[in-house]
């Protein structure tokens, strides 16, 4: 966040490359929970996936997860779904948001108004959460697809120095999972978006202490 604040205060914050790139390979599936402190353990979560899931089907990667209706299904993050937010304190713990958003928008909404998207295997398996899912399916049973986002995503981005991406600052209105857009850049609000790596843009260098715009 300190580096983001430095970039935001810079004279050049729009459409400038930063050292973040998508590996975007179908056989790499590093799943993470949006909720900090929760760790994805494959042996615990295996039974939750639907048949043949996750399959990362199609030309564009499926890096976000929906419940359909009780099993998990990987889906393209730009798809719009209703979603459930989690409250760390207070009651009720779960809020069904009756508005369709893409996954990043849903995450941003939950973090602004609650704690985060519902996440973690204990929450997903809790009776209270299952009641919410049943209520959702009952309410929207007339729809062709009654799926909801949960806070599980596949991390495909890596810093150019090889470090893992633990801090994420994506613009919720950007589509960052398009197969052709595998390099990250800044936006006017200081957040990140992505574009085709062969495009020429200003860029930031890092000398170990300070960012320099070029």
Can you describe this structure in just a few lines?
By secondary structure, this protein is α+β, with helices and mostly antiparallel strands.
Q: Which labels suit this protein?
A:
single chain; 214 residues; alpha+beta; 2 domains; seven-stranded mixed β-sheet; four-stranded antiparallel β-sheet; globular; C-type_lectin_CS; Aggrecan core protein; disulfide bond; C-type_lectin-like
Reconstruct the topology from this structure.
Layout (H helix, E strand, L loop, with lengths): L1 H7 L8 E6 L8 E3 L8 H4 L18 E4 L4 E4 L5 E6 L7 E8 L1 H11 L2 E2 L3 H5 L1 H13 L8 E7 L2 E3 L23 E4 L5 E4 L8 E3 L4 E3 L1
Parallel strand pairs: 5-8
Antiparallel strand pairs: 1-9, 1-10, 2-8, 3-4, 3-8, 5-6, 5-7, 10-11, 12-13
Would you mind describing this structure in some detail?
InterPro entries: C-type_lectin-like, C-type_lectin-like/link_sf, C-type_lectin_CS, CTDL_fold. Residues 4-86, 94-206 form the C-type lectin domain. Keywords: Disulfide bond. The protein has 214 residues and is α+β, with helices and mostly antiparallel strands. It has two domains: 1-24 and 162-214, no CATH class; 25-155, no CATH class. Helix content is 19%, strand content 27%. The strands form three sheets. Strands 2, 3, 4, 5, 6, 7 and 8 form a seven-stranded mixed beta sheet that branches. The protein has a four-stranded antiparallel beta sheet with strand order 9-1-10-11, with no helix packed on it. The mean pLDDT is 80.
């Amino acid at each position: 966040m300190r580096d983001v604040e430095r970039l935001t205060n810079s004279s050049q914050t729009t459409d400038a490359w930063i050292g973040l790139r998508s590996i975007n390979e179908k056989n790499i599936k590093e799943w993470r929970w949006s909720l900090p402190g929760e760790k994805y353990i494959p042996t615990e979560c295996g039974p939750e996936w639907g048949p043949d899931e996750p399959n990362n089907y199609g030309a564009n990667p499926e890096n976000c997860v929906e419940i359909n209706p009780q099993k998990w299904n990987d889906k393209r993050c730009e798809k719009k779904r209703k979603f459930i937010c989690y409250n760390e304190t207070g009651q009720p713990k779960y809020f069904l948001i009756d508005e369709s958003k893409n996954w990043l928008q849903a995450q941003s909404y939950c973090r602004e108004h609650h704690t985060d998207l519902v996440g973690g295997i204990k929450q997903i398996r809790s009776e209270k959460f299952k009641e919410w899912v049943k209520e959702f399916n009952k309410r929207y049973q007339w729809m062709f697809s009654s799926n909801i986002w949960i806070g599980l995503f596949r991390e495909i981005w890596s810093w150019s120095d090889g470090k893992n991406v633990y801090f994420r600052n994506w613009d919720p209105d950007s589509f960052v999972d398009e197969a052709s857009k595998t390099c990250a850049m800044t936006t006017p609000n200081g957040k990140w978006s992505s574009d085709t790596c062969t495009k020429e843009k200003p860029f930031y260098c890092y000398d170990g202490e300070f960012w320099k715009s070029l």
